[in-house]
Amino acid sequence: MELNTPSGTLNRDAIDLRLIRAIPGGLHLTPRPYAVIAAALGMTESRVIARLKHLLERGDIRRFGVVVRHRELGYRANAMVVWDVPDERIGEIGRLIGRQTCVTLCYRRPRRPDRWRYNLFCMIHGRSREGVLRNLEKMVEACGLAWIEREVLFSLRRFKQCGARYDVDREPPRRTVDRVLQDAG
C-alpha cells in the first residue's frame, strides 16, 4: 500500500487512521480477508471495503496490492523483460502483454535519453530460466511482438519482499517549491 500525500497532509479521520494502521502487515490468507479486518476494527466487512475503495478513489492510497513470494511457490527463476515500444502504441502493447498468463507484472516507465531506451517492463516468473525463456518466446510469437526491441534481465538475487509501512501518526515534512523543483530537475 502506498499513501499519496502530495501536499504533505492526508485528510485523515479516525476510521481512516484505524484502517490504514490495520493493513500494512498484509491481508490474512483467508477466503474473506476484509471480514477479518472488520472484526478487529468493530466494523462490517462491506464498510471496510467501501472505506478502502474511498481511500483509493480519493488518492490517499495510491496502490493496494499483493506481495507474492514466488520462491516459496517453487518459481526459482524470474526475469524482467524490458521493451522499446513506440510511445504511440504503449497502451495497446502494454495491455496485450499484461493479459498474458506468464506475465505477473507489466508497467510503463519513462525513457532516460542517452541511458535507457526501454519504456515498458514486464516480469515473468518460472521454475527455471529455460521455462521463462520458453514462455517469453511463446508470448512473442502468439502476440506478434518480434518486431519490438527487448532485453531479458534475469534476477541474480532476491531482495526482501514486504508491504509498505507508514507512520500515519506523524505529519510528513512539508516540501517547499524550491525543494520540489530541485527534486524534479
Question: Overview of this structure, please?
Answer:
Helix 2 packs across helix 3. The chain folds into two domains: 66 residues, Arc Repressor Mutant, subunit A (Orthogonal Bundle), CATH 1.10.10; 85 residues, Alpha-Beta Plaits, CATH 3.30.70. By secondary structure, the protein is of the alpha+beta class. Strands 4-5-3-6 form a four-stranded antiparallel β-sheet. Strands 1-2 form a two-stranded antiparallel ribbon. The protein is elongated and about 55 Å long. The N terminus and C terminus are likely disordered. The chain contains six helices and six strands, in the order βαααββαββαβα. The longest helix is centred in the C-terminal third of the chain and has 15 residues. Helix content is 35%, strand content 17%.
